[in-house]
Structure formats: structure tokens, C-alpha cells
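Researcher: Here's my situation. A collaborator sent me these components and asked whether they could plausibly form a single complex. I don't have experimental data yet, so a predicted model of the whole assembly would be a useful starting point for our discussion.
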Amino acid sequence: MISSNTAPQAAPKKVVLAYSGGLDTSIILKWLQTEYDCEVITFTADLGQGEELEPARAKAEMLGIKPENIHIEDLREEFVRDYVFPMFRANAQYEGLYLLGTSIARPLISKRLVEIAAQHGADAVSHGATGKGNDQVRFELAAYALNPEIVVIAPWREWDLGSRTKLLEFAEQNQIPIAKDKRGEAPFSVDANLLHTSSEGKVLEDPAEDAPDYVYQRSVHPEDAPDTPEYIEIEFEKGDPVAINGEKMSPATILTELNEYGRKHGIGRLDLVEGRYVGMKSRGIYETPGGTILLDAHRGIESITMDRGAMHLKDELMPKYAELIYNGYWFSPEREMLQAAIDLSQEHVTGTVRMKLYKGLARVVGRWSDHSLYSEEHVTFEEDMGAYDQTDAAGFIQLNALRLKLIAMRNKRVK
Amino acid sequence: MISSNTAPQAAPKKVVLAYSGGLDTSIILKWLQTEYDCEVITFTADLGQGEELEPARAKAEMLGIKPENIHIEDLREEFVRDYVFPMFRANAQYEGLYLLGTSIARPLISKRLVEIAAQHGADAVSHGATGKGNDQVRFELAAYALNPEIVVIAPWREWDLGSRTKLLEFAEQNQIPIAKDKRGEAPFSVDANLLHTSSEGKVLEDPAEDAPDYVYQRSVHPEDAPDTPEYIEIEFEKGDPVAINGEKMSPATILTELNEYGRKHGIGRLDLVEGRYVGMKSRGIYETPGGTILLDAHRGIESITMDRGAMHLKDELMPKYAELIYNGYWFSPEREMLQAAIDLSQEHVTGTVRMKLYKGLARVVGRWSDHSLYSEEHVTFEEDMGAYDQTDAAGFIQLNALRLKLIAMRNKRVK
Amino acid sequence: MISSNTAPQAAPKKVVLAYSGGLDTSIILKWLQTEYDCEVITFTADLGQGEELEPARAKAEMLGIKPENIHIEDLREEFVRDYVFPMFRANAQYEGLYLLGTSIARPLISKRLVEIAAQHGADAVSHGATGKGNDQVRFELAAYALNPEIVVIAPWREWDLGSRTKLLEFAEQNQIPIAKDKRGEAPFSVDANLLHTSSEGKVLEDPAEDAPDYVYQRSVHPEDAPDTPEYIEIEFEKGDPVAINGEKMSPATILTELNEYGRKHGIGRLDLVEGRYVGMKSRGIYETPGGTILLDAHRGIESITMDRGAMHLKDELMPKYAELIYNGYWFSPEREMLQAAIDLSQEHVTGTVRMKLYKGLARVVGRWSDHSLYSEEHVTFEEDMGAYDQTDAAGFIQLNALRLKLIAMRNKRVK
Amino acid sequence: MISSNTAPQAAPKKVVLAYSGGLDTSIILKWLQTEYDCEVITFTADLGQGEELEPARAKAEMLGIKPENIHIEDLREEFVRDYVFPMFRANAQYEGLYLLGTSIARPLISKRLVEIAAQHGADAVSHGATGKGNDQVRFELAAYALNPEIVVIAPWREWDLGSRTKLLEFAEQNQIPIAKDKRGEAPFSVDANLLHTSSEGKVLEDPAEDAPDYVYQRSVHPEDAPDTPEYIEIEFEKGDPVAINGEKMSPATILTELNEYGRKHGIGRLDLVEGRYVGMKSRGIYETPGGTILLDAHRGIESITMDRGAMHLKDELMPKYAELIYNGYWFSPEREMLQAAIDLSQEHVTGTVRMKLYKGLARVVGRWSDHSLYSEEHVTFEEDMGAYDQTDAAGFIQLNALRLKLIAMRNKRVK
């Protein structure tokens, strides 16, 4: 039976926790043990956030987690192949600009939490997202969509450890080691994975103020980027990148590589105020070096291989698709419907794009494909040998104009 | 009565010609006189293309046009105020990227052609657009929408002067002076106005090949732009820019100024393959220096002053709106309906955006407004004094999850 | 300051209650007095539900409400003019079928609640909607949109009077008179106003079972309707009906009249399972006699007066518009944006429609208008005297086919 | 090479003609032989139009067509299975009402024309649609999409046999037998197939006038339908009907059966003015007896088996989907994208609907399914045993209201 999980009737016995190994999720781990008196299973995933995972194992063990209850997984290939690339097929940008780097990682984490829960017979999962953000929604909608009976524990919505001081006290009381640099408050909050790094809060809370330089961690400042442009060629197959400069690579490798190009040239920085699903606006600094290159390159290869009708439909569907991902509806029938339409449109999105990278900017400067719909024969300013009969245009215009003429006649008549 | 204009029944007696003063439209002028034996009225407009207009007067007179039949007008303010700015309120981008610089100029030219025709009692208008492009459609749909009885003469679809050689022969036979640099073929074709310059054809016809440097005429190469970023503040009122760095300016002046900033920093270059309304794909090089800054700045001010619901609706409507303008339906009821919705959304889009301009890139780095919806009180990582109750999020998630849970239960049951 | 109203910090001192005079809202009235120890102001509106309002005054006085705190208003004209008709301009149908009769009444009630609260200096409003339905959402979103500082008290979500027995006990303990027919449980729940009557719950909860005949209260059974069809002519101005059979009437009068026609002919019954905003599906029996006639008639007059481009855009926007109203977002910027677009489309929706009413069915059988876009001259099978040149169609088809041909060539090449 | 087919360069040698055996297409047959001096192959298809096909064979032979060049095919099952049912999955209605009965038949005819052309090595196809209607566009877009090199001959746009008199003269001169009832002009024009019968033109050209009774040929007048309602149960699997009253049937059989029910009860008549793709409005009388029942039944089974998110997306996509079919873009990538999304949504649209048929009206009165998402447990007015926590609604409303509150605060502040 589905029951409302707001106030779980029976206290969960086993909980799978999304565990980073950091101070906050270590406190959650301890809090779950003490508050719920339950067995905790930790799940630590490498989604390309750029941190060692093994310390998380040691820390979990130190906090009393049984070795068989510690899960550490490298999900980078799955993340890029099954989440990032499908999303880029849509050219998804939330509110016109945001490449959804955080949003797209949540469903995969929830999927693994739920799967590990099934494996251990656990009745609950837990995450460290706060009650003001979108991530709690994304984690939980995904979890419920995959297992309607799972209980989700969101400690930040439940406990009374709302301030830094209380958290540190709790850590000390529970022998949770506190790294020196975690004593003070971080000047802003960070989320990272292979697609992006986002920073928000504290020093970034005034949207009128420029973000301080030190916020950017994933890319050089455009001013410090090389003074000479670099050109790369990205090869696509059915909408996904498969090679750079002729070298075939796996999905995670290719995104890693693009990140490196983007980092070097200061590409992919975004300073954005966005509308959160939970109702308020927030300001974030996003760095999506490889993704920014990928978006432009993908549009570039689509431009010669995808028909106008398909492309315009796709463009109309995109904002809704991006909104669904942002709001946490990856595992929803409507996202899957849109994905089916989008994926079909990519069947011929195969070919190569040449990009110029320079001082923060990635620009398409050439594209070619065996699947090209571009017909020099039709478009040429030169004699086209009968490929296109210009007089056809007269009839085309007349019939398209007919309804406009009828309106104009009517308006003249009745005004 | 509306009649089909494909083969105008009665030959027109008076024709208003969109006349640039250049070789091609001078040939059209002469051809109209000889082919149709009609009185020609010339209309030459300054839309900010950066050319002197007075030589067009002299040339028209030389070709036998009566002084009272020569119309030369500065339409820059009207163009920016009534066409460019309304379009930018929508953040319109065709196929995700193109800022519609050519498309948006056509309706205004047609409007004036039709108005001047009415003033002179002329029964036809004429333009110099070819039969393969979008511009013929835009000119003619606009003309028919404004006067359903007007006849449109499109010489490029009618005459047999299809090659350069024939054109030059015709010019020589008719004493039309040919500038020395017009003897040879231009290496590509150019259209320009205050919003943008587009280049296409000939050397640009292979989309695999980089555009040669000399194609870009409106902006410095990013590599040659200043090594130091420049910051500007753009002030908006109800969605339109009204001041730069605190100085109020008219619409055309502000766009001219933004163009200057863009030009200097190499901003607004676009190398695009696009789907034409007439069915084939074409490749264009666009330079929209001021417009590119304006688009980002406008999104920036919207980001703090426009509600999420309004913005997402606007984003969903945008591709259709852009398509309508691209295809020539500015004067259509559906474009006007969308405009009504978009304009309403701009009522509070008032405030200031701070932009960083550097080496081809314009980025928002700050924004503020009395109309801001951003609430530090709600979003803060600090204690929010009760502005937001985090436990509300639990109910929010539960109810949003309910349908997903019901699906999951069903799918488990029937599979 | 906006504060979260889930747990109102300071107990409200004065509350405006949406009061029907019935048992349930009388219990709420008493409960508010005792639970919150606050002054209660009652608001009773005539939206055409077909009940006497004066008994509500007597009842309120009996329950101790001061005469100056009793508001009884006839809102029928405002309801139809400012809510029902604007919605019908959109041909709004939720999930393809539901005419939104309940949804559209809520915003007006909330608007008056908030206005009366302002007038009395009241800090809260209260309603009798349950915690499972859409109405709570509609009441509250509207109230918060109009006054962000208002507190909303929803007793059904707060009290422990969840069962019929407890309610009756409370009524007895508090000397609230209980009509004899209210002792037992009603076999289903009803909401009514000038637009519709909805019935749901209890005997209707199994969607496999036909609704019992006695559920329908607003229309005769089609089987009992007259055996002879009746024809009426409805005249529209700018999208709104203004006369029936040549007789001009006010908005509420015209809807009342259409209801009478619909009732007599058994028109407007709907047995629907719909997706609620709060996540579950529910089954309702709707009777919308006049509205069903109006919808078809409105489509009929649009069919000759509205251009295809406008109509298709409107049709695409409609589902979103209907969803917004259903979900309670009448007072939202996105509903207002859509309304602006829709209203603009109605400028020429003026003319007359002839309807045939017979045994449950309302069908358009004729329509005429000075604003008609229908051109017999163009469409005729007879010789059209040059109004339309059939050879134009060849060019029209060729250019529309071009992209499809290019796709076909490509697909042949690469497969 | 694709060439413009407006004026086919080389005269076609072999033409496949869509041949009904009637007078008009017999004249076309002869005209093709004489005008183009080409070999004609006839294709006569049974799409359920209710006419014998064998007379077409005799007539073709009489007109000199070689037996091996005569193709007569029963396409009813393919038509319903691959065209009608996929379209009904979308609940497609053009301009809100039209079930697209003519539009959906054209692509299949073109597909067979092109396939037969390939089989015979023919270089052209030909059809009997006029130059004012939509059908020419549908035939030709489909043909070009399937074979970009095919030539299409549309005699009605080419010849000078524009009047009835000239046609009859041509027939007499060419020994084409003229049935007695074809001497005079038909009072209106008819198209029929298994899905619908449409009538238009002549006596129907004034949209203010009721259609004469004799126009309706496919259904009894509602007034003459049985005085007692009839109930049927339609079973669906994955969105398609598969059985009536428990009896499994093939696609064409089930539609035939539904037509019989509809005919008997006077269901599915529509008197519509619609906007043609070629620009003018036209008035048609449509009879879609089985399809009208099917549409309502399909919505009925969707209402309990399809999630709200999927359904609302589908409703938003429908107008565009219907427009594409109406305009002739069945074989376009964008129709296929939409179909992919729609088909995915039908995976669980399995179950049974009970319909009441009476005097022109088909109404859903019950529906049940193993795949149902309807949860009595959640929706019940009774105690729900914890399935739904009503207090969740408070948080749900608060967070959904937050943005509206922020708008209201802002508007108060700046006004």
C-alpha cells in the first residue's frame, strides 16, 4: 500500500544513505543511527565530482557501518551515457540558459539508492538535501517513482540542527572528526559532478554583486586563457558525441576531455538567477565547461542533419523537457514521452563539427556529414540546373497569403 | 476583390519600388519602366544599414524618377522601437540561435511601400529579393496583409536576367552606371541594418569551410578585441533598454551604442546553417553585436523581475514566435496574439543589468531592480526568521509524488 | 513580510468565512469561534447555485454573528461576465471534456473574501473545502495571490471532526440546528453554480458503475426530453454571447436562459474520471447545460470569423489555459498572458449561430456574420472569376515538399 | 536529382493513376493517354468507401488498360490498423471537432501509388484532386516524401476542362460512358471511406443554411434513431479497440461494427466550417459514426489508465498533430516524433469502456481496467486508513503559492 510518508507510521529499520564522506552526511549518518535506531547502509557514488571515494569507506567504517553495508560505485559512464547525453539530445536549457548539471545527477543517485535498498531489504533511503532547495524534490520524486513504498528521510527537514554551531556540537558529541577547514563556515555551497560545478549561497546571495573570482573552480578565467584559439572536431553518432579529433572515446571519457578543453579556455561560466520549483528565486554560479562546448556542437551537427520540421518541434518541446528535469520528473511518463520524440529525431544526427575555442567562447565554424540535408545545388547563388524553380515561390506566397488577404478584406469591411 | 496576383490581370500603372540606389535595384527600376511601361516611385529607407541615402536620390533622378516620386526616409527609430524591441521582449531566436536581424526589417519596409502606394494611388509594389530566399515571402506576406489588393512585382522571379553577365549587359544597354567594384562578382551577398549584418552565398556556400576573415565587417575579431574586459550597465523599463551607464537614450541610439560596444569586443558573430521557409537549408554569417548584448541583458533583467510561471510560458511560446517572424508573418493575428501575451509579461521587467564584455563574450554579472522578485529572506542559507517553513516541502513533495507512486504501483501490478 | 502560513505564528483575530448557511459551514463557523476565539465575518454569495441566501443571514445571526459582519451578495453577473465568459473565449476543456464549472467559481469567492477581509481589517479567511480536493488549492492560491499576508484557515485539514458522527456531535454540543435530511449521510456530494452542478463521492466512487439516475439534478434525462428538436440562434459580440433569438440579455441572464434550454433537452451531462492537482484521480458527474451549448456555439461563430492561424494557436494554448484554471492559477501572470492572447483573438468573433437542440445534443447547423472570413467566391466549385489561381497550388506544394524530398534523398543515400 | 516538378522536364512515360472507376477519373485516364501519350497503370483501392471495385476493372480494360496494369486492392485492414488507429491514439481533432476522415486516407493511397510505380518502373503518379482543396497537397506531399524523384500529374490544375460541360464533351469525344445520373451536376461532392463520409460544395456552400437532410448518407437522423438507448462495451489494448461486447475483432471489422452502431443511433454528424491549408475556409458535412464513438471511448479508457502528466502533454501536442495530418504531413519527421511520444503513452491504455448510445449521442458511463490508476483508497470520502495525509496539502499549497505571494508583494511595493 502507498502510504503518506510525511510522518512514517512505523520507524524504518534499515536506511540507505547517500553518503559523501563529508562532515554533513557523516552527521546525518550518526543522527539516523541515534534518532531512528536503525541500521545504516551507505552509498557513495563517483559521478565525476573529482573527489577520492575511498576515504568515504574509511569514514563510514569508523562510524560503525558494517563493511557489507558500504557501497562505493563509479557511475560516471552510466551517468553520461544514460542521463547527460539523452538530455543533450534535447539541447535542454532551463530558463534559456542553465544546462541542468545538478538536476540530471539526482535521478541516478536515487535509482541506485532504491536498488540498494531492495538488495538489502531496507525500508528507507535518506539524503542530505535541505528543505529549501530543488534537490530534495528531485531525490524524492525519483525514489517514489521507482519504489512507491519506500520511505524517504530528509534530516534537514526534520532535525533541529539548523545552525552551523549546532551541527558542530552534534559532531563533537558524536566523535565525528571535523576537518580543520570545515570549522568555519564555507563562504558558499558547492555541488559538482562530471557535467558541472554549481556554487550558491552566502557570498553569492546578492544577485547585484559580481561573484568573487575564487568562486570559479572548474575553469580558468577567460582573461587567463590562451591567447590563441584552439580548434577541435567533434564527431557525433545519432546525436551523441563519439570522438574528438578523430579519436573515439567512451561517453564519460569524451565529457572529461571536453571539460578539459573548456577549463583551459575559460568556457562555460554562467551567473544565473533562476526560479526554483519550491517557489523562490535563487542565484547560482555554474561552470559547465564541456557541456557548453557540447551544446553548441550538437546544435551545429543538427543544423545540417535535422529537418526544419523536426527541429522546430524539438525547440518547442525543449522548455517543457528542461522544466521536467529541473523539477525532478526524470522518471515520469511525460519526460519519457518527450524523450521518445527527441530520440527519434536524432536518428540521422551523425557527422562532424569543427569548433573554435577562445577566451570563454565556443563557436561552430564548420560542419559536415554524410547525413547532411544541406543541398548546395538548391541554395546556390549560381545557376542551379533546374533543381529549384523560382516561379514556384509565387504560388507558395499566394496561397500562404490568402488567409491574410481575407483578414485584411474583412477588417476593411467592418471597421 | 482579391485576385490571385501570380499573373496580374491588368498591368500595373504605378509601382513603388524598394530602392537602395545600388546596381541591382537600379536595374529593376529600369526594367519596371521598360517591361511594364509604368510610373516608378522609389522608396529608400535608412534602417541603419550604414550607407548614405542621398546618392540614391541623385541616381533615381538620373534614371528619370520625378522628384515627387522619390521617398527617402530615416526609419531607424521606428524600426528599433516598434519592431526590434518588441521582438527582443520575447528573447526570440530562430532555431535556437539566429537573432532574426533580416527578418525583422522586412515588415517595416513593406508597410511603408504599401503606405506610399496608397498616397500615390499606385497599384503595385516591387522588391529586389530573389526567388530562392525568405525575403520575397516576408515582403509579400506583409504587403498582402496590409493591402489585399496590392500587386507585388518580384522581378527576380519574372525576368530572364538570371546571370551576372546579363544583368551587366542590361545595365549597359540602359545607361545605368556601374561602379568599378561591381564589375566583378561580389564574393558573397550582404544585408545590413541597425540590428545586424548578414552574409551568405558564394564563398560561404560550403558549410564545412570556415568563413574567411574578410566576411566579418561589423565587429573586430575577438582575437583583436581589447585584452581588458569592459563593464557596462544597461537599464530596462518594461522590457526595453532605456539607458546605458545611466545615460538615457532613444531606442535607435541605444542600439547604435550597444553595437559600438559589441563591435569593439568582437561580440555577436554567428556561423549558422538554417532551414529556410522555402524549403532548403542555407548557411549564413551573422553579426549582431548590440543585439547579442541586448539578448543576454534582457534575460538577465527578466531573471529577477519575471515570475517563473510567466517565464516558462514565454520560453515555450518563443520558438513559434521566432518562426512566425522568420517566415514573414509579422502582420498575422497569431503573431499579434503572442505579442500581447509577451508584452503583458514585461510590465515589471524594469531594472538594471551589469554586463562584462570581453573577447567575443557578453555575460551578465549583476542585476538589480525595485521590481525584483528575488527574496534574500527566502533563499538565504542563514536563519530566515520564519519566511519559509521547510516542513512545507514534505507535503509539497508528497502530493507531487502521489501520481508517480500510483503509476509505480500499477506498473508493478500488471507487469 | 510573507510568512509561511502552515502554522500561523499569531492566532488570527478576525476571520472572513465563506459561509453557505448549511450544516458544514455552520460547524466551521462555530469551530472558528471556539478554536481560535476570533471574530467571524460571514460571506455568502449567490453564484447561481439556486439556493435562497436569506436563510444564511438568519442562521449566521443565530450563531452570534453581528449584523454588520454578515455579507450576502449576488455575484452572478460578475461571475459570468468576468470569469465564465473569458474562459469560454478559450473553449477551455480540462482533459478534453470538463468545462471547469467548479474551478472557475473559486477565484471570485476568494477575491471577495480577501476584499471583505481588507474592509474589516480581518487577518484571515476560511473555507470549507477538504484536504483531498482541488478546491482548497484554488481558494488558497487565489487568496495568497491577492493578499500575500492573509492567513487561510482550512478547518478540514486542521480539526479532528473527520467523521460524520463527530460532526453531528459537535453540532449538537454547539446548538447548531441539523436539518432532518442532513442526519443521514448524503449519498454523494454536490457543488453548484450558474455554470454547472457537479456530483461526486460515495455512490459515485466506482468508475465502472453507471451513475444512478437520481444523481442528475440539473437536466432532464435525454430519454425524457422533447421528441422534437428546437432551434435557437445565439448572437455573439467579440466572443461573448449577447442575445438569444434576437433578444439582448445580460451575461447572467443569457447563461440562465441557455441553462433552461439545456435542461429541457437533456444537454450537458458528463461522466468523467479526471486527474486532480493533488495527485489522485476522481470521478465526477457534471451537468453543464447552458455551457455545453455555449461551447459549441462559440466554436461555431469562431469557425467563420477567426483566422486559421489564430485558431490553431488558440487550440494549442487551450490545454495549458484549462489546466491553469483547474489547478487554481486564475490569478497568475501566465493565465493573464494567455488571456491577453485569447482576448485579442476575439476582436472579430461577432455574429450569429443557429443551433439544433435535441435529446442531449447541441449541434451547430448554421452561422453568419458581417465579420466572416468565409469567402464563397474562393471556395466555390463553380467558376470563381479569377479569385483563386489553381496553378498557385503547384508552387505551394513544391516548396512545402522540398524539405521532405531532401529528407527522402538523404535517407536513400545513407541507408 | 530532385528537380522541380512544376513543369516536368521530360514527359513521363508511365503513370500510375488513383482510379475510382467513376466518370472523373476515367476522363483523367483518357486525358493522360492523349495529353502525355503515356502508359497508364490504374490503382483502385478499397478503403471502405462502400463501392464495388470490380466495375473499375472492367471500365479500365474498356479504356484500354492492360490487365497487368490494373491494380485493385482491399486496403481496409491496413488503413484502420496503420493510419486510423494510430491517429485515434492521439484523440486528434482538427480545429477542435473534425476527425480527419479524409485526411488520414490520402497518405496510404499515395504510398501504394508510389510503390506500384516502383514495381512498374513508372515515373509519375496522378490523382483526381482539384487545385482548390487540401487533397492535392496531401497526395503530393506524401508521394514526394516517399519518392523524391516521382513526378505528380494533377490534371485539374493543368487541363482546360474546368466546367462540367467541357468534361462531358471530352467524355463523349473519347467514348467514355456517362452514367445517366452523372449527366446533371451532383448537388454536392462526396468522399467516403471506412472512417467517414464527407460532403461539400454546391448546395452546402452557404454556411448559414442548414444542410439538407438528403446530404446525410451514412447515419439515420437522430430523430429516426431508436427510442431506447443501447449500451455497448468496447475493449482496448494499448490504446486500440480490440473487442466489442467481449467479441474480439480485426481493426477494420471493429470499425465497421462501430459504424453500424453509430449509423443506427444517428451518431457522428458534424456541420463544420474549417480553415483549409490552401488558405480559404470551406464548409463540410462529416459523418463519422464509428469514429465518434471510438473517440469518446478512447478518452474514457485513457481517463483511468493514463497519468495526468502524460495526458496533459498529449492534449497539448494534439492540435499540432491534427494539423500535420490535415495539412498532409503524415510522412514527416515531426509527425513521426509526435507519434513516438503518443504511442509510448498508450502502453497501459488497456481496459474496457461502457458506452450509452442514444439519438445522436455516445457517452461513456463506465470504465474499468487492470491497468487503472484510479485509487478508491485515495479518493474516498470515507476514512482512507492513512493512504493520504491531508496535512500534506498545506505544504503543497504553501510552496505553490510562494511565487504568487512574491509577485503580490512586489506589485504592492512598486505600484
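Model: Some features of this prediction you could bring to your collaborator: Chain A is about 40% helix and 20% strand. The two ends of chain A are 64 Å apart (CA to CA).
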